[in-house]
Every structure is written in C-alpha cells, then in structure tokens.
Amino acid sequence: MGYLVTTPIFYVNAAPHLGHAYSTIVADVLARHHRQRGDDVFFLTGTDEHGEPVANVAAERGITPQELVDENAPRFQAMGPVLESSNDFFIRTSDPRHKAVVQEILTTVKEEGWVYEGRYEGWYCPKCADFKTETEIAEGNTCPIHGIALLRESETNWFFKLSAFQERLEQLYADRPDWVVPQSRRNEALAFIKGGLQDVSLSRNAITWGVEVPWDLEHVFYVWWDALLNYVTALRFGREGEDLTTSHWPATHVIGKDILKFHTIYWPALLMAAGMEVPTRVMVGGFLLVDGAKMSKSKGNVLDPFEAIEQYGADAVRFYLLREVAFGSDGSVSLDGLKLRYESELANDFGNLASRSTAMVRRYRGAVVPDVAVDASVAAEFDGLPDTVATMLDGGQISQALETIWERVRRLNRFVEEQAPWTLAKAEKAADEDPEAAARATAELDRVLRTLVEGVRSLAVLLHPWLPASTVVLLDALGAPELSWAGAELGTGAAGAVGELAPLFPKDRAAA
Ligand code: MSP
C-alpha cells in the first residue's frame, strides 16, 4: 500500500534549528514505522523558496533571492542525513518541474470557476506571509505569532473562492472527526471555519519572486498556494520514472500549529476545487520552547541540531525531543534536559538492559539463547503491543506510543531485578549440594535469559522508528536483523547465538 508522509517545507531565510528538525523527526518516525509494516512509503520534505519571507531577507542582505535560496537550501538538505531522516525526496519549490505543475493545477482551478479578479485591502504579516482576518490580529495591529507590526496592504489580486467551500469543509469535519489531530487543533480549525470564510488572494502583484501566473504575467501565485502544492507536485517527479499520484495520494501531513489554517482550511478547499481528495490526516505539533519562548531565529534562542547531534548522536536527539515534548503540546527543551534523558533513559534504562541481557547469555550460556518459552507474566504484558503502537501512531499519538513501549523497557528492568539471574547462576553451580534445586535454577535461568533477550529484541523492533541507528546495531548483535512489524510481537524471535555488544549509549558522550 502506498503511504505518503510529509513535513512542512522550510523557509530558507535562515539556518535550520531544532524546531525545524522536530517535524522532520516526527515524519521520519511515521515513515520508518510504515516501512516496517510493509507499506510503499514515500517520505517527502523540502524547502519553500518563494515569497516575502525569502525575498525580504535577500533584500536586507543585498543579494538576489535565488542566491539566498541556493546558499541556504543545502543547509536544510544537509540536516536530513544528520538526523537519520529517511526522506525519499527533497523538493525545492524553485525547481522548474514544481513550478510547471503548480501552474497546471491552478489553471484547472481557474477553469473550474473558482478564481476571479478583485481588490485586497487588509492586514498582512510578511513573516507569516499571511493575510490576517480580524480574529487573528493582536493588539496594536501586530502579528500574534511574530509580534511585529502588520502591514496595511491594498492591491489588485486574483482571488480564490474559499467562501464557496464553507459547507463542504464543515461537512468534512463532521464526517471525519479525526482528520486533524489532536482534537484541540481540530476544534480550533473548525471554529475558524464556522466564523465564516472569506475569499483569499491566489496571486500577488506587489512581489515578483514566485511562480508566474500563466494567465497574467504581472502576477506571481501567493506563496502559500505554491508551497502547499509541493505535496502533490513532487509525486510527479520525486521517484524516477513514476507518477505516484494515484498510488500515494492522499497524504499524512505533519505540521506545526502556526500553519494550521493553511493546512486544514485553505489546503482541503484548494484540493476540492482541483477535484482531488483531501489529505488522510493532518498531525499538528506544538512548539519547542527555550526558557518559555518559542525557539526561533528572530528570538535568537535556537538550538543547533548539528551541535546537539555531534555530541549525543541522532538517536538521542530524536528520542529526547519526542519524549520530552508530548506531540501536540508546547514544551521546553534544553541541552541539560537532553543530557539527563540520555543518561537516565537511554544509557541506563535501555542501553544497560541490552548490555546486561547479552552479557549474561554470553557468560552463563556460552552466547546461545536457551530455546525455551518466554516468561508468561512478561508475555502477558507485551501481548498486543505492536497493534497498540500502530494504532497510536496512525492517530498521531507519537509520544504516547513511545511511552507505551518505554513502560515495557521499565518492566524488563524490574524483571531482571526480581529474578536476579546472577543468584540463579550461583544456585545452578551448586549441584553437588542440592541437585534438584540446581536443576530448577537452570530451568529458571533459561527462562529468564530467553525472556530478556527476546524482550530486548521485540523492544528494538518497536523502537526502531525513534532510535534507527542503535536498534540496528542491537538487532545485529542479537543475530536478528529483521525489522518487519510482524516480528515485533514478543515470542516471534528465534533463540539463536548472541554476539558482543558495545555500549549503545556510552556514558562518556554525556560527560564531554
Ligand atoms: N514554509 C512554511 C511551511 C509551508 S508548508 C506547505 C513555514 N516554514 S518555516 O520554516 O517557518 O516552518 C516550518 C515548520 O517548522 C513549521 O511547521 C513550524 O511550525 C515549525 N517550527 C518552527 N519553529 C518551531 C519551534 N520552535 N518548535 C516546533 N516547530 C517549529 O512555515
């Protein structure tokens, strides 16, 4: 089955920061998970290169917009591999192939009667590239997101008849209550729609940096239409020699809460106008905060993903962000917080569990896992876990899914302490004194070791989307490299030979 997952495409007016990395990591978790399920995944990300946010910064720096995007787009492109992002394509909206499809689709929308020429008069935020409605304006005519003064714009534009989609949008929200998650964001979008939709500019003539309107060359398309359309244009050329539109559309979109209106109101309306299906789901994340404020270039409080990863590795940064900040809510992040979770959860809870389990099999059983049944009480607590996790991920409950798995990490750690395999190992050696007790200890130790190694294997498969590099190392050491979701269930792994395992999350990394 085709599965398309997308990140927002990033404005290339500044360098990438952890706030950008966040959407990429969430989408990558979904992409990897769906590959494990056997889906034909197309994971799309890229850069949004037109419009005022880019043109203004280029003007400030005295370079052309093209020079600016050519300088910055590679920095976003470079972020992918560093994050272990498995994106299948990276679209740049300055790509002529993208521009041609934007022109084609928006011409269809016009031919279908959804476009007219009119005059725009109102408030505009050049950083959001957003025409603000009365309810979206903060005190003193400022932007509630950027805090800057809004501009009074007045120009002749081509308009999109958004208001004509009022009822169909309301119906969409009624028919599919979870097409936007979490619920709070869905309710926010619906309230905006119920407040009454106004038509919105389709083109601008005040700026020139954009995709030309083919029927009126004095205009470029308003950057948001050009940007949103990346999600479908890339399907035409993102995979060599194929058109993925039929096999992969509609998409699952991962976005931040500041771009909710565009994705949950403008975008489905445009798709309806173009005769296309609306997205499967829009998953809306909150903001990463630093000392209580949104991490952003303009606030000067950004954390550099490249630096954090250099020290702790991509797995740790991915894990930290998704664990620290419940997806959908805002949450504070810091390098101290990263260090803390690295040490307590990755190094101690999971890394140590993996090291101990493999080391004990090597010490007590000559590196071969005993071929016995797993412990019944542990099995009961792992039962159905892959289905639960899959359902949570489909519903956008990214952090809850991780917590559900982590409860089992903690469960196995308790299991080691309760069962004290080192005591069983001593008892089985004392066969001279009490052969019966020794035989019992042998059977118990077999069960404990098998449960631990099989538990760690199942956890590694489940955790793979969050910790792609270390879980592969671990599964290789367990002699069970298979990642498929069918093998995520506890007890489905074979009892084989176990190799040596170096610490997955070395403590000295955090000490540096
Ligand atoms: N170009 C538009 C998106 C077009 S999608 C068709 C845009 N770009 S952006 O670079 O400003 O932001 C990209 C994404 O990063 C947005 O989803 C935004 O919410 C997210 N983030 C930027 N800073 C963030 C945080 N501090 N925390 C979490 N996400 C944040 O908007």
Q: Approximately how much beta-strand content do the residues carry?
A: 5-15%
Tally of DSSP helical segments: 20
Question: Any idea how many domains?
Answer: 2
Q: Main sheet?
A: 7 strands, parallel
Question: What's the overall geometry?
Answer: elongated
DSSP strand count? 17
Could you state the CATH homologous superfamily of the largest domain? HUPs
Task: Provide the structure class.
Answer: alpha/beta
Instruction: Report mean pLDDT, rounded to a whole number.
Output: 95
CATH class of the largest domain: Alpha Beta
Q: Measured on Cα atoms, how large is the radius of gyration?
A: 26 Å
CATH topology of the largest domain: Rossmann fold
CATH architecture of the largest domain: 3-Layer(aba) Sandwich
Question: Which bin fits the share of residues in helices?
Answer: 40-55%
Q: Which ions and ligands are bound to the chains?
A: 5'-O-[(L-methionyl)-sulphamoyl]adenosine
State the distance separating the first and last CA atoms.
Answer: 45 Å
User: Could you list the spans in which at least 5 consecutive residues all have pLDDT below 50?
Assistant: none
